[in-house]
Write a structure and sequence with these properties.
The complex is a heterotrimer of chains A (about 425), B (about 250) and C (about 500).
Chain A lengths: L4 H11 L8 H17 L15 H4 L24 E6 L2 E2 L12 E5 H4 L13 H5 L7 H9 L4 E5 L7 E6 L6 E10 L4 E7 L5 E10 L4 E7 L7 E10 L4 E9 L3 E10 L5 E11 L3 E10 L5 E11 L3 E10 L7 E10 L5 E10 L5 E9 L3 H9 L4 H17 L5 H17 L3
Parallel strand pairs in A: 1-5, 4-6, 5-7, 6-8, 7-9, 8-10, 9-11, 10-12, 11-13, 12-14, 13-15, 14-16, 15-17, 16-18, 17-19
Antiparallel strand pairs in A: 1-2, 3-4
Chain B lengths: L1 E10 L5 E10 L4 E5 L6 H9 L4 E10 L2 E2 L5 H7 L1 E4 L6 E5 H15 L7 H14 L4 H5 L1 E2 L5 H15 L3 E5 L7 H14 L5 E6 L3 H5 L4 E6 L2 E6 L2 H9 L2 H7 L1
Parallel strand pairs in B: 3-10, 3-11, 6-9, 9-10
Antiparallel strand pairs in B: 1-2, 1-4, 4-5, 7-8, 11-12
Helix pairs in contact in B: 2-3, 6-7
Chain C lengths: L1 H21 L14 E3 L6 H10 L4 H14 L24 E3 L14 H9 L22 E7 L2 E5 L2 H6 L3 E4 H7 L1 H7 L10 H9 L4 E5 L8 E7 L10 E6 L4 E9 L7 E3 L2 E6 L4 E8 L12 E11 L5 E8 L4 E4 L2 E4 L5 E10 L4 E10 L5 E11 L3 E10 L7 E11 L4 E10 L5 E10 L2 H9 L4 H12 L1 H4 L4 H14 L6
Parallel strand pairs in C: 3-7, 6-8, 7-9, 8-11, 9-12, 10-13, 11-13, 12-14, 13-15, 13-16, 14-17, 15-18, 16-18, 17-19, 18-20, 19-21, 20-22, 21-23
Antiparallel strand pairs in C: 1-2, 3-4, 5-6
Helix pairs in contact in C: 1-10, 1-12, 2-3, 3-8, 6-7, 9-10, 10-12
The chains are: A alpha/beta (about 425), B alpha/beta (about 250), C alpha/beta (about 500).
């Protein structure tokens, strides 16, 4: 079939100033992505997968300028967590601000250092998981990233890491346009926690590919930064082995456009994958969680827990799917997407799907949308809790199930305090 | 009535032997009790006799009035006169208790070549039997076992037994989860069904149910075998001394 | 009182079991009536559209409306978003009009209709004599009357109880008759709910619809009996394109039933219907369907391709509509009976059982469009997949910014029997105000082994046990059907699943 002209036009505009670099395996992977991209083009709002989010500003030739944001006296996210910190400024790694990337049992290499090497483990990950994630639904922005990203880290864990690795993304330019591509590989039995925080750029297109081998455990906690005008399209592609665990949580507070895609494949038996998100938005805020959970192995468990608190015209989107392939018996799949609309202007748009080809499964999804519960509010007030505090309490209670997906209590507390701060600043 | 010979059973999906040569013979009109510690294979025995999936019979036989049970489908065993009162009666949302009972009664009647009961006859019989078990109209109308208390579920099992009029009744831990009053009520229901043509196998952990349903014989089961058989006094011995001595004796 | 209720329900469930036992054949309506037919030439063109219009003695405005639809249709492409796969349909290889020769001169009453045709309906259990119908239970209220419009291929044979209905001011006739006799009503309302531009299949229907039913209930009238249309496809290679228009005026009420069957044939047949319902202030319509078109054989050969657009417009305050459907037939089902809740405080309900066995594919659901304030909707969908079938629930719940204080509750359950079938749920939820509450729940599971074993340990065989458990799973929907239909539906649930176990 002929590609719609608009898709080709968007690709030509978006990639005009970008060049494919590198030799060896990485260059080959990038050139392969360029070819795949040419056959796809870039998304337009007429695509079913972009039904609720207009990709125009993500595919435009240049980013819409975004005012810089001063977080005031709020401490940076995960500030109190002991971690190996790797800092990016406007999407470019800044060694001067970063820790020495040394952590027992963990290899940390910048993408540029792996380019000249003939044989590298990342060869089986870079662009590979992303390619797998293109069926049955295309994600051209991820392919664009694979083709042109030169910034990012390759992290391989062979044992249980003593502390997390933390990516800090600073933004100092109103027109920064970042492409970040990370590959993470956890070998059999390894365990790693990865933190990500900060706005990154006026526009960021990110891909993270995560290979979790049999018996390995991966925790990912992300706080996307409070810049109001930033735009983000992120993708996490993960492949989860037998008996392995993959957990990812994202806090989004502010940002005029965010599309977070999570593409998870449970390929081994007895794997566990949980993806969760808490999003709070006030005013010009469009937040889209798109999740595709594929069950291939038997007896796997998956959970999707997404909560959104919206006010003053903020828009929340959830597109989530559980695909259970034939033979993936004893699957336990759960999905919940809920929004709390604090005023009449906000919107919640959801498409929670189940596609199931195995019979011995237990899958369910729920989706709700509504206002704060007046009865509960009154009950709290009648017990002496001031209205604002009561509202905050109820909002936090609403978000609790998502935050509960974070295993590390100190990290969960950091997220919780950030949300409390946000609620205090955004009275309703 | 029921003759179990050298019954060996393992789990279908793993190599775990549960019954390791059970021999048991129950005559017409007799009441037998099986006692034993957790994991001794008591419930497995009842499930295997009723024909639940998940078990593999590796050896032995179980004859009900000379007919081999182990080769029959569960419904054929029921039609042959076997009844298992479940330890955990199953909830079936959307299916009315009356519908369920009537479907079962008529299916069995049909399998035995008897005429089906009309709606009127059936209703009359159910009402009468339900009354003695203190099962009210509401319980009959609700979906099978859904929202029933523990006692209600067990009484419902006995009601089914009364309606189906089996020859061989197996009560699997029918006393579990019941207070004394509920247990008495259930026991009375069972006792009312005792007669010369009907036999019972009562599986229980404790002596207390046997105060109400008096057994003719008591068997102690351990590690998938019957290790000792005797009269009602054996149950009292267990009550007083526990299983430890008996187990040691059998070693 | 308890006793009566229990006994009646008992009767219903027993009926299911008895029907299962009595039926040895898989599809009982698969025979055909041997009768001479008049066909329009194969294929679709403006000439065919003109021919259909002239066969129905239509006025110019109706012909113009059809031609506009046809001209639009030729520029449209067939939709592909549904989770159904079928070979390309050659729209030029179909007959668009087939009429029994004996109907060449329109009979004045059913007494004059060819006895062969009347026998067809008698064999289907649809007596066209004016008597209490649909053999079955005696309901506690005594005899119930049901008026029938019998549609055979492209034409309506006749409508029963017309006189008695006319006394109440109710108009119940074929749509072709309505176009001639009540043009002011038809012209005002046709296409006002499903515009001729709506979608590929609805536009096709607008161009070539040959017959169907028309209902008008005047203000403040409770229709004195249930109305029903029974659709029968008989001719080979012939599509059926009926169009139904129901107008329920202020404060009126009607319950409408629809049944469908077709002979077994190796070649798939096309059915593209449109149903439009207009409901005015304080009026209420119940629309129940038992769709039992020929599903094709075990290998997916033959069967009806069923592409249907059904929509109700609750145009004024407090209007109410309830769709209930039992979809057991058809090789392909593509059907989304929808509610436009325009009037304040209007209500829409959708109850559905969709069973797909063997090679059947069903993609069905509903749309609840909340436009008015304090509007309410409820969706209960039960999907059952067996064999190699694919069964998809697809739905939209939309709360517009002005639809304040509205409610939706959706419950979507899927049951899988066997490991080669598929069950899918594709809901769209769009909430644009915060005083409305939307709740969606969905589950997918297999037939519970413990429940089956429990039933079997009480003496039921496996098919009986499955029928019982599945009927339990569908209970919420079966209860929404009128009594006569509920019985037929329960029996169908059991029959449709034959051969799905073991």
């Amino acid at each position: 079939m002929m590609l719609v002209q608009a898709k080709t036009d968007a690709l030509t505009a978006r990639s005009g100033a970008l060049t494919v670099s590198g030799s060896g395996w990485l260059g080959a992977a990038r050139r392969d992505a360029v070819a795949r991209l040419a056959a796809m083009g870039l998304p337009t709002k007429r695509d079913e997968y972009w039904r609720y989010t207009d990709p125009a500003s993500l595919t435009a030739a240049t980013p819409t300028p975004a005012a810089l944001f001063d977080a005031g006296d709020e401490a940076p996210a995960f500030d109190g967590i002991d971690a190996v910190k790797l800092v990016f400024v406007d999407g470019v790694f800044d060694p001067a601000q970063s820790d020495d990337p040394a952590l027992a049992g963990v290899e940390i290499t910048h993408l540029s250092q792996a380019e000249g090497v003939d044989i590298h483990w990342a060869r089986d990950v870079y662009g590979v998981l992303e390619t797998r994630g293109q069926t049955p639904v295309q994600r051209p922005l991820a392919t664009l990233n694979t083709a042109y990203a030169t910034q990012g880290f390759l992290i391989r864990a062979t044992a249980k890491a003593a502390k997390p690795v933390s990516f800090l993304y600073q933004n100092r330019s109103t027109t920064s346009d970042a492409l970040l591509h990370h590959c993470i590989k956890l070998e059999h039995g390894a365990e790693l926690t990865l933190l990500e925080s900060g706005p990154a750029a006026a526009r960021i297109t990110a891909v993270m590919e995560v290979e979790v081998a049999d018996g390995a455990r991966f925790h990912h906690i992300r706080s996307q930064g409070r810049d109001h005008e930033r735009r983000a399209a992120t993708h996490v592609f993960s492949r989860v082995g037998a008996g392995a665990l993959f957990k990812s949580f994202t806090l989004t507070a502010n940002g005029c456009l965010t599309r977070n895609e999570q593409i998870v494949e449970l390929v081994g038996n007895d794997g566990v994958a949980h993806v969760a998100g808490a999003a709070v938005g006030d005013g010009i805020f469009h937040h889209d969680d798109t999740v595709f959970m594929t069950h291939e192995g038997q007896r796997c468990e998956s959970r999707q827990v997404f909560k959104k608190v919206l006010m003053n015209g903020a828009v929340g989107v959830f597109q989530g799917k559980i695909l259970v392939k034939q033979g993936a018996q004893k699957t336990d799949g759960y999905q919940i997407s809920q929004s709390l609309l604090l005023d009449g202007d906000s919107q919640f748009l959801a498409k929670p799907e189940l596609e199931i080809y195995a019979d011995d499964v237990k899958c369910s999804h729920g989706s709700t949308s509504g206002a704060i519960d007046d009865t509960a509010l009154f009950y709290l007030q009648s017990r002496g809790v001031p209205k604002r505090m009561a509202q905050s309490l109820l909002v936090l209670a609403f978000l609790a199930e998502a935050i509960g997906e974070i295993e590390d209590e100190a990290i969960a507390e950091d997220i919780r305090s950030r949300l409390e701060g946000w609620l205090q600043r955004h009275e309703h | 009535m029921l003759n179990i010979k050298n019954l060996h059973v393992k789990l279908e999906e793993e190599d775990k032997v549960i019954l390791n040569g059970v021999d048991l013979s129950i005559g017409a009109g007799e009441v037998h009790a099986i006692m034993g510690p957790n994991g001794s294979g008591k419930s497995t025995l009842s499930y295997v006799l009723a024909g639940r999936e998940g078990y593999t019979v590796t050896d032995g036989s179980a004859l009900l009035e000379g007919e081999e049970l182990l080769e029959l489908e569960p419904e054929a065993r029921a039609a042959a006169g076997l009844f298992l009162a479940f330890q955990y009666p199953v909830e079936i949302p959307g299916v009315g208790n009356m519908t369920f009972l009537r479907t079962a009664v008529n299916a069995q009647r049909k399998a035995r070549g008897e005429e089906e009961l009309s709606a009127g006859e059936f209703l009359k019989i159910v009402r009468a039997k339900a009354k003695t078990l203190q099962i009210d109209a509401d319980m009959l109308k609700r979906p099978v076992n859904v929202g029933f208390s523990g006692g209600e579920k067990k009484r419902n099992e006995i009601l089914q037994m009364a309606m189906l009029e089996p020859k061989m009744c197996i009560l699997d831990e029918t006393d579990s989860g019941l207070d004394v009053d509920a247990m008495k009520l259930v026991a009375e229901g069972v006792n009312a069904l005792r007669d010369a043509g009907r036999s019972f196998l009562v599986i229980t952990h404790y002596q207390r149910l046997l105060d109400h349903i008096k057994p003719d014989f008591v068997h102690i089961m351990a590690a998938g075998r019957i290790i000792k058989s005797g009269g009602p006094e054996l149950a009292l011995e267990v009550e007083n001394n526990g299983y430890a001595d008996l187990l040691a004796e059998a070693e | 009182m308890d006793g009566v209720e229990v006994e009646v329900r008992e009767g219903v469930d027993r009926e299911t079991i008895e029907t299962v036992q009595a039926m040895s054949g898989k599809y009982k309506h698969g025979w055909e009536t041997d009768i001479e037919m008049d066909y329009a030439p194969k294929g679709l063109s403006e000439d065919i559209v003109r021919l259909i219009s002239s066969k129905n003695d239509e006025p110019q405005w109706m012909l113009d409306w059809r031609l506009a639809a046809y001209r639009r249709w030729v520029k449209m492409t067939e939709p592909t978003w549904a989770m159904v796969n079928y070979p390309t349909i050659d729209y030029q290889d179909q007959y668009y009009y087939a009429k029994p020769k004996s109907m060449a001169v329109k009979p004045k009453s059913l007494d004059e209709v060819d006895p062969k045709l009347l026998a067809t309906y008698a064999k289907l259990g649809i007596p066209l004599k004016e008597q209490a119908l649909l053999a079955g239970v005696e309901t506690p209220e005594g005899e119930r009357k049901v008026a029938v419009d019998a549609v055979f291929d492209s034409v309506s044979l006749g409508t029963t109880f017309k006189g008695e209905l006319a006394k109440a001011g109710v108009i119940f006739c074929s749509i072709s008759e309505a176009v001639r006799e009540h043009p002011e009503l038809v012209q005002k309302y046709i296409g006002s709910v499903v515009p001729p531009t709506d979608n590929f299949f609805a536009t096709l229907n607008s161009a070539v619809f040959s017959d169907g039913s028309f209902v008008y209930i005047p203000p403040g009238t409770r229709c004195p009996m249930e109305l029903s249309t029974y659709f029968r496809i008989n001719a080979e290679n012939t599509g059926q394109f009926e169009r139904t228009l129901i107008i329920c005026d202020r404060g009126a009420y009607v319950s409408y039933l629809e049944g469908c069957t077709a002979p077994k044939r190796d070649i798939p047949q096309l059915h593209a219907a449109v149903v439009e319902i207009v409901i005015l202030e304080d009026a209420e319509v119940k629309y129940s369907t038992v769709q039992n078109w020929y599903p094709g054989d075990e290998n997916g050969v033959g069967g009806i391709y069923n592409f249907v657009t059904k929509r109700a417009d609750c145009r004024e305050a407090r209007a109410k509509v309830m769709w209930t459907q039992v979809e057991t037939g058809s090789a392909i089902t593509w059907k989304y009976p929808s509610c436009i809740l325009r009037g304040d405080d209007s209500q829409g309900e959708f109850y559905s059982i969709a069973i797909a066995n063997n090679a059947q594919q069903a993609d069905t659901g509903t749309k609840m469009i909340h436009l008015g304030k304090r509007t309410k909707s409820r969706i209960v969908s039960k999907g059952i997949s067996a064999g190699r079938a694919q069964n998809t629930y697809r739905g939209l719940v939309s709360m517009h910014p002005k639809a304040t204080d509205s409610r939706n509750y959706t419950q979507c359950d899927s049951l899988l029997i066997g490991d080669k079938c598929g069950a899918h749920t594709v809901p769209y939820i769009e909430v644009k105000n915060n005083s409305s509450r939307v709740e969606h729940e969905a589950t997918t599971s297999k037939v519970d082994e413990d429940q089956l074993f429990y039933c079997r340990s009480r003496g039921m065989d496996e098919e009986e046990a499955v029928a019982l458990v599945v009927n339990g799973f569908c209970k919420d929907v079966l209860q929404a059907l009128p009594m006569e239909f509920a019985m037929e539906a329960q029996a169908l649930v059991a029959i449709s699943l034959e051969g799905s176990v073991g």
